[in-house]
Amino acid sequence: MVGRKPEFDRSYALDAAMQVFWKKGYVGASLADLTLAMGINRPSLYSAFGNKEALFVLSLSQYLEKYAKGRVELLTAEGVPFRERVFNYLYATVKGQAGEGTPRGCYLASGLSETAGEGLPAAAIDALKAADAESVRQLESLFRTDLQSRELGLDERAEDCALYLITLLHGTASVLRSGRELSELQSTLEFGLRGLGLEKA
């Protein structure tokens, strides 16, 4: 009896592609890199995911679901003071950027840095910008609606506060990718919070 061919693991293949894009960027990731990491050939890649552009967009969604979603939930943790929630979110994000079984940096931030060039197709650019805008929107909503934030008057500049934190995180992603260590950035996060008027108790 002929053995049955192992079932294709779509989630595993997508995760592998995400790691390649995360490390090399869209332009730097060749189809050979992707198929090798995913354990499939080119026809299988096209059949399962479409083209490289579609694979990148799907990989971005995988990143957001697997890594970003849990960090955002820290912002609304019950019974935790506002400043601590914001710090926990920032620290968890930066810790992820430092590389824990993943490439250093941030998939989203790295992708956004490529949008200034000419190598990214339109769908990839749109997906990256939409994800970045959603990150800002989530933080803006927090600053605008959280009771403790409103007591501090941060709701009146919610959009500026949100963009400030996202900009800070894009910066930490860059310096961690270039070789800085997580331990060097904790004080940077503290400075960042003080810039918003969130002093340690």
UniProtKB/TrEMBL annotation:
<keyword id="KW-0805">Transcription regulation</keyword>
<dbReference type="InterPro" id="IPR036271">
    <property type="entry name" value="Tet_transcr_reg_TetR-rel_C_sf"/>
</dbReference>
<dbReference type="InterPro" id="IPR001647">
    <property type="entry name" value="HTH_TetR"/>
</dbReference>
<dbReference type="GO" id="GO:0003677">
    <property type="term" value="F:DNA binding"/>
</dbReference>
<keyword id="KW-0238">DNA-binding</keyword>
<feature type="domain" description="HTH tetR-type">
    <location>
        <begin position="7"/>
        <end position="67"/>
    </location>
</feature>
<feature type="DNA-binding region" description="H-T-H motif">
    <location>
        <begin position="30"/>
        <end position="49"/>
    </location>
</feature>
<protein>
    <submittedName>
        <fullName>TetR/AcrR family transcriptional regulator</fullName>
    </submittedName>
</protein>
<dbReference type="Pfam" id="PF00440">
    <property type="entry name" value="TetR_N"/>
</dbReference>
<dbReference type="InterPro" id="IPR009057">
    <property type="entry name" value="Homeodomain-like_sf"/>
</dbReference>
<keyword id="KW-0804">Transcription</keyword>
<dbReference type="InterPro" id="IPR023772">
    <property type="entry name" value="DNA-bd_HTH_TetR-type_CS"/>
</dbReference>
